[in-house]
């Protein structure tokens, strides 16, 4: 079973010149040599946000509504664009090659329609750290789930990319899709629109469903790994298992405390 879809089969999908011209080999080489820098980024992020939070104790909260609206809207549009491009390839593979190939294929890392958006997905994990800066500057409640989610996602996605691990296509397409919805919601809230609480509940449920889907895909990867169909490592499987399980537990706990108990609504993801 091939792990790479023949490029000639994808011509009808209509890739753009800027997508075709992206040098994925150079990007992977850079990531292979520098993925460990995500550890430094994560450490700097945690130090920075708690440093700002401590500094803000004696200051009035900033409003930042226009900046937050623009920030969230930009990330929503970026996520929507990435979701559209990756879904185009995902649907093609599912309809022509089947689910197994959609999980195991490394095509998402190298083919013109997706290679740029897969790399942008990694870089977006750095951009999204800016969400927390807005929270601490506005003196909103910073929950553990929020900064833990950002940190672990950055570390695992950067580590997975440099060796083109199985399951990357589903990770990118689902996360892009969820974030397109989530950041659109954040943008509307920041712009002053009064939205139904049901929307926030639905978004959290979607995030929980996303983690469950990742868990199921991981199980398939473990099963198919023995047939040498899905390229991965036990280290990657261990890291993804820890991340997925912990995030699912944290999201469930957040959902229970925020929506099922009569407690004040927490701010954050």
TrEMBL record:
It comes from Aquila chrysaetos chrysaetos. Its EC number is 2.3.1.199. Pfam families: ELO. GO terms for biological process: fatty acid elongation, monounsaturated fatty acid; fatty acid elongation, polyunsaturated fatty acid; fatty acid elongation, saturated fatty acid; positive regulation of cold-induced thermogenesis; sphingolipid biosynthetic process; very long-chain fatty acid biosynthetic process. It is found in: Membrane. This is Elongation of very long chain fatty acids protein. It catalyses: a very-long-chain acyl-CoA + malonyl-CoA + H(+) = a very-long-chain 3-oxoacyl-CoA + CO2 + CoA. It comes from the Eukaryota. The chain crosses the membrane at residues 38-56, 68-96, 144-161, 167-186, 198-224, 236-256. PANTHER family: ELONGATION OF VERY LONG CHAIN FATTY ACIDS PROTEIN 3, FATTY ACID ACYL TRANSFERASE-RELATED. It is an enzyme of class 2 (transferase). GO terms for molecular function: fatty acid elongase activity. Coiled coil: none annotated. PROSITE patterns: ELO. InterPro entries: ELO_CS, ELO_fam. It is a multi-pass membrane protein. Keywords: Fatty acid biosynthesis, Fatty acid metabolism, Lipid biosynthesis, Lipid metabolism, Membrane, Transferase, Transmembrane, Transmembrane helix. Belongs to the ELO family. GO terms for cellular component: endoplasmic reticulum membrane.
């Amino acid at each position: 079973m091939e792990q790479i879809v023949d490029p000639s089969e994808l011509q009808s999908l209509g890739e753009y010149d800027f997508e075709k011209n992206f040098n994925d080999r150079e990007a992977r080489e850079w990531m292979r040599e520098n993925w460990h820098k995500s550890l430094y980024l994560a450490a700097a992020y945690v130090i920075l946000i708690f440093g700002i939070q401590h500094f803000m104790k004696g200051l009035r909260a900033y409003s930042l509504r226009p900046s937050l609206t623009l920030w969230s809207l930009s990330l929503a549009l970026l996520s929507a664009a990435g979701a559209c491009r990756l879904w185009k390839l995902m649907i093609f593979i599912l309809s022509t090659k089947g689910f197994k190939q959609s999980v195991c294929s490394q095509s998402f890392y190298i083919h013109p329609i997706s290679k740029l958006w897969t790399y942008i997905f990694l870089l977006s994990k750095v951009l999204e750290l800016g969400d927390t800066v807005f929270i601490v500057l506005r003196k909103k409640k910073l929950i553990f789930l929020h900064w833990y989610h950002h940190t672990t996602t950055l570390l695992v996605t950067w580590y997975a990319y440099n060796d083109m691990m199985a399951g990357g296509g589903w990770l990118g397409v689902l996360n892009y899709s969820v974030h397109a919805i989530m950041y659109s919601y954040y943008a509307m809230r920041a712009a002053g629109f009064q939205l139904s609480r049901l929307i926030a509940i639905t978004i959290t449920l979607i995030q929980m469903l996303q983690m469950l889907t990742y868990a199921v895909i991981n199980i398939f990867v473990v099963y198919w790994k023995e047939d040498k169909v899905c390229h991965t490592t036990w280290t990657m499987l261990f890291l993804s298992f820890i991340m997925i399980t912990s995030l699912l537990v944290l999201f469930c706990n957040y959902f229970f405390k925020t929506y099922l108990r009569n407690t004040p609504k927490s701010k954050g993801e």
